[in-house]
Amino acid sequence: MQSNSVATTFQAVQMFERNTRWSEQNSLEKTNNTKNNDVEINKSSKDKKDKESSQEKLTPQEEAKVAELKAIDLAVRAHEAAHISVGGGAVRGGASFTYVKGPDGQNYAVAGEVAIDTSAEDSPEKTIRKMQQVRAAALAPADPSGQDYKVASTATMLEMRARIELMQEKTEEMSKEQDINSYKEQVNNTKNSQIENTLSLSA
Predict the structure, then answer these.
(1) Which residue from 178, 188, 130 is spatially nearest to 154, judged by alpha carbons?
(2) What is residue 32's predicted lDDT score, i.e. its pLDDT?
């Protein structure tokens, strides 16, 4: 009976020792895994910082190129904004830009355009006003481009055409008024002649 108790106790001690060793082994493995994870995270963070640092480090030539692109970007945006601010209802939508990527990885606008409606209106007077606004919008920037001058020239031509059309309409109206006045005068003369003849017969 005693031996069984001793054996049982011995087995319990062995089991405790195995469990203890297993627990210690698991704890050691977890510690090692944690350390490995920390090393991997630190390595990943270091690689990311090194990558960002390498991107931030530009040569003097690259820095000069970035400065040039920034100046061009500002000038292009100001140019198109001038068109839009003066164009009013003749402007169709906002500005669209052409971009290039700089040495720093950023996109910079190097060209732009604004759609302007140069179609004629339903009356010469409206067309004249519209073309004046189109020409003003085309020449609004401090440094109009060749295309800007072309649009302004087109607007001037369309304005002149509308003025000719307006003059023709006014001439036709004047001619109609003259015809009406002439007809009225003829009618009046005829009436007066008839009255004179009647008076003459009565006499």
Answers:
(1) 130
(2) 53
